[in-house]
Amino acid sequence: MAGILFIISAPSGSGKSTLVSELRKQVGGVEFAISWTTRPPRGSEEHGREYYFTTKEEFQRMLDEGVFLEHAQVFNDHFYGTARKSLQEARAAGHDLLLDIDVQGAAQVRAKMPEAVSIFVMPPNPRVLRTRLRNRSRAEGVVNEEEVYRRLNAASKEIENYREYGYILVNDILDRAVAQLEAIVLAERFYRNGEVIAYRSRRVLEVAAACLQSNSHERLKPVLEAFGIFGSTGQQQLNFNEDSDEEDSTVDEENPDDD
After folding, report:
1. I need a surface site. Which of 48, 121, 143, 186 has the fewest CB within 10 A?
2. DSSP character string of 3-47
3. Residue 79 pairs with which residues in a beta bridge?
4. How many Å apart are CA 58 and CA 83, to the nearest integer?
């Protein structure tokens, strides 16, 4: 049975890498496409685990040869891309494939494969996102305020693309967001492949349905307002508030190690 292609996107620091890791611990048959990047490794990252690290010259050669299913140029002129081979191998094994890619890459994949299931992960507000980004910078040994605020501004622009995604998650409480992501995967398997949901099937389908973008207006309203995104115009009025990091401690801050 052919696997399902899942696209997951989020602003940097939203915690999607943690969500994906937790999902794969709990749901079998989900392959993860490791991206290629031209940025240097951070901290304990290893080649072939978090990313495949390469040079800009080699990345361009691979791009010219049609290796990538999608690619994008993001922060600091670094390039990211997903090899077509990942999708081919997952399909050959009958597994689902999850792509952790930004809004640029997601648009490319949707254009080629409109059947893909797209999921957008949002932080609950700019203050929490700022704290997560600062915490990550501290873990890497340097707090670069200019970089933090650049990513905050980029986040608001990325969030404007939420309308292009089928499902929306707000990652304020990690366990709840993981359960929602798991429900989406199981529900899509049920609807597309007729795969039986063994545990609390009705509840799983209800949780997934609540995450549909079409059912998320009221839940998303405070998040969009916090990021200065109003109505359908995309009008922005950013206010990141210089509150202390301690005020953010009530929100789940686990492992926001996303680019």
Report:
1. 48
2. PPEEEEE--TTS-HHHHHHHHHHHSSSEEE-PPEESSPP-TT--B
3. 73
4. 13
Position 140: which residue type?
A: E
Checking phi first, is residue 228 left (phi over 0); if not, alpha (psi -120 to 50) or beta? left
* Pair 100, 8: CB distance under 8 Å: yes
| Residue where the block lists tokens 């048959």 | 29
**Residue among 85, 115, 86 nearest 100 (CA):** 86
- Residue 70 has φ and ψ, to the nearest 5°, of -150, 160
Q: How far lies 217's CA from each of 71, 84, 163, 168, 221, in Å?
A: 30, 35, 11, 10, 6
Per-residue pLDDT of the chain (259 residues; tens, 9 = 90+): 569 999 999 998 899 989 999 999 999 999 999 999 999 998 788 999 989 999 999 999 999 999 999 999 886 689 999 999 999 999 999 999 999 999 999 999 999 999 999 999 999 999 999 998 888 777 666 667 887 888 888 888 999 999 999 999 999 999 999 999 999 999 999 999 888 887 678 899 999 999 999 999 999 999 999 998 865 444 454 554 554 444 444 445 445 556 6
Decide which of 3.30.420.10, 3.90.1520.10, 2.160.10.10, 3.40.50.300 is the CATH code for 5-248: 3.40.50.300
Q: What is the C-alpha to C-alpha distance for residues 145 and 127, in angstroms, rounded to an integer?
A: 14
Give me the residue spans of the domains in the chain.
Answer: 5-248
Structure tokens at 245: 């990091």
Q: How far apart are CA 51 and CA 122, in angstroms?
A: 23
| Six token digits for residue 249 | 């401690």
CB 75 within 8 A of CB 148: no
